[in-house]
Amino acid sequence: MKKYLSLSFVIVVFTFLSCGNDKKKSEPEVIEVETAETSVEYNSGNIDVTFTDEKLAEVFKQYVQLKTALVKTNAERAGMQASKLMDVFVRIGANEAAVKATQDMMDSKDVEVQRTAFVTVTAEVEKMLQGAIAEGTIYKQHCPMAFGNTGASWLSERKEIYNPYFGDKMLKCGRVEAEIK
Description:
The protein is an alpha+beta fold. 50% of the residues lie in helices and 12% in strands. The chain has one domain.
């Protein structure tokens, strides 16, 4: 009996002390947070890569412009840049997958739809550029968190990470996966 009385006493004291620290407030606490609009300071710079074929140099140049629009989360600009890339694809006779994905980017005003199509555009551009670099380096970069942690890659003219799949939300998320020379 003494054991149960002691245990009951401990429970009552513990409950009293626990509840005593949780004083109810009549109004919820309001915390004001100032937010500044985030802008992505990223411009595609000089491309320090030379190609064995001038047409492929134009493909990469337009690809970088498209990637830059996605980094800046600008759907309108991405659609316009996809149109320019499409012109180059038509001139060089790009395959159906590249053309369809680029057309999807042109047709959509939703940056998330454009980012999804950009995965295919990247894969197709990477295939085109294999063995076509005369001098310099292209960086294949990867974000493991893109598309619900399935991950996605992109090509970059620079080593520094600027993520086209998250833009200003997670601008620096990613890693250099490979160097294409």
